[in-house]
Design a protein that fits this description.
This protein has helices at about 5-10, 25-30, 35-45, 60-75, 130-140, 160-165, and strands at about 10-15, 20-25, 55-60, 75-80, 90-95, 100-105, 115-125, 145-150, 170-175. It is of the alpha/beta class. It is an enzyme of class 2 (transferase).
Length: about 180
């Protein structure tokens, strides 16, 4: 399936979580067997360019795509978790969201010093969560030079912010608007 066909599977929900926002819901893409498989195929093709030894996925939907890509490549998967989900001492990063604050945590033993890690998530908007993820991975000793997303809301300029941090940023599809 080509990117236009995949994009057509993504459901748009207007006025969520607030008026004026067009929420891009990937649930329909995940539930579509052929579409989900084609999305993973396209992500794997792009992930190969990163030459990483692990994929880090941001909770929760980044787990779906990141783990599938890591398994297909035969490399490790590193979960970047919400607070309080890991049973061992963690390192974490607090960051700002449009509607408040959030935190990502990581088991520091999941990353080897100097390891090349590919960051993955389902959607790139303002870039705040992705930047926090890059910061957290780098604190743990990872080398992060590539970020890969299913969807980029390019008008929100998250990709621009990640590129300013030295990352190669790619997405399977782009949507206009929020």
């Amino acid at each position: 399936m080509d990117p236009a066909e995949l994009k057509a599977i993504v459901r748009t929900i207007p006025d969520f979580p607030k008026p004026g926002i067009l929420f891009r819901d990937i649930t329909t893409l995940i539930a579509h067997g052929r579409g989900f498989a084609a999305t993973i195929d396209r992500l794997v093709d792009r992930a190969l360019m990163a030459d990483a030894s692990a994929v880090a996925g941001i909770e929760a939907r980044g787990f779906i795509f990141g783990a599938a890509v890591a398994a297909r490549l035969g490399i490790g998967f590193i979960p970047l978790r919400k607070p309080g989900k890991l049973p061992m001492p963690t390192i974490g990063v607090d960051y700002q969201l449009e509607y408040g604050e959030a935190r990502l945590e990581l088991d520091p033993g999941a990353v080897e010093d100097g390891e090349k890690v590919l960051l993955m998530d389902d959607l790139l908007a303002t870039g705040g969560t992705a930047l926090a993820a890059v910061d957290l991975l780098r604190q743990a000793g990872a080398r992060v030079h590539h970020a890969l997303f299913v969807i980029d809301l390019h008008e929100l300029k998250g990709g621009h912010l990640l590129r300013e941090e030295g990352l190669d940023v790619q997405a399977i599809m782009q949507f206009d608007g929020e």
